[in-house]
Amino acid sequence: MTEEIDDTEWVRRAQAGDPAAFDALVVKYSPRLYGLVYNMTSNHEDTNDLLQDIFAKAYRSIAGFRGKSSFYTWIHSIGVNMTINFLKKRGRRFHMSLDDLDAGVANDKEIVELTSNTTPVREADLSELQQRLNEVMMKLSHDHRAVVTMFDIQGMPHAEIAKILGVSEGTVRSRLFYAHRQLQNYLQEFHS
Amino acid sequence: MSQEDDTIARLLRLKRYEQPPPHYFEEFLHEFQQRQRAEMLRRPLWRIGLDRIEAYWNQLSLSQLSYAGASAAVLLGAAVFTADMLQHPGGANPAASFAYQSYPVDPSLSAPLHHERVTPPGRSINTPRYAATHSESLPVRQVSGAPFTLNPQIEVAPDFFRQPVRTGATHSHPRYILDPRPVSYDAPISF
Known about the structure:
The complex is a heterodimer.
Chain A: H1 2-15, H2 19-41, H3 44-61, H4 71-90, H5 109-116, H6 123-139, H7 142-153, H8 158-165, H9 169-186
Helix pairs in contact in A: 1-2, 2-3, 2-4, 2-7, 3-4, 4-8, 7-9, 8-9
Chain B: H1 3-13, H2 24-42, H3 45-59, H4 62-87, E1 98-99, H5 107-110, E2 115-117, H6 128-133, E3 138-142, E4 148-150, E5 165-166
Antiparallel strand pairs in B: 1-5, 2-3, 3-4
């Protein structure tokens, strides 16, 4: 709850016209929002532009933020909506611009086990798997991709995702179910 | 979670390791600040003024506004009601503007001139014999109104149809006053 109180205070100061307070919110939330947007677009440059637009919009709208939801939920809602709108405009013509895998992946036992079942763990295999994962993610619908990104990649609970998307928890679970089934079909070659 | 779901979840964990270049977020903040300043410089004066007005309205509490609105509505309603009362001292209810005449009755009002009774020629529904042999209800038609039925067991006094006296309002339903003497006071007839 300390996090919420901090956010509330930053928001109050930002609403009072303190730009440093909004900068603090940008510093705090940009890594999380970057992950959200990047995993939905699979393009670093698009993510950077969108992230700028998202924070610019949040800055312009911060005076109207009433605190009915947490700032976390509010800024994520802006992020998801703007990203989905962007993806609709972008259509199918795009190229992937993927970030490099962090060196820490070599120490993740689950990843190591997963890849060692098929081939020895090597940088080339991980890159191939990363490429394939991003390709299949792009085959999902925007709504399904958003749910998979928030639940499976960012580890958000169903209730939080439901608040961000403005849908019921049942809808979130349903979207996850169908998205996982699609991903299984696309990724069969990796775990067969 | 099924085995397949678990595998998918583990595969997707790999994407958590996709990270932007080092110092990206510091540069991002710097870029954001520059962009903010540039936007501020580019904005026309009217837009800045509009934003300030919008911010002022947003600062006003909605609950305060709703209380003020409700109070204004109550005051307005009270003012309208008072003005109406002053214009109509008898009261706002039209039904309250009727007064019914009690005994003694004005003969011109008490005569049943406005109704025609559908009875066989030469017979009167006021006689007990007629009532005993005709148990069905007899229709009585109002000249200027919808027909209704009258039970012949009820003795109808000559001043049965007594009209109410109107004092002010124009819309009313006719009301009737029965003679206070009940029918059971008639002497029984035996054959």
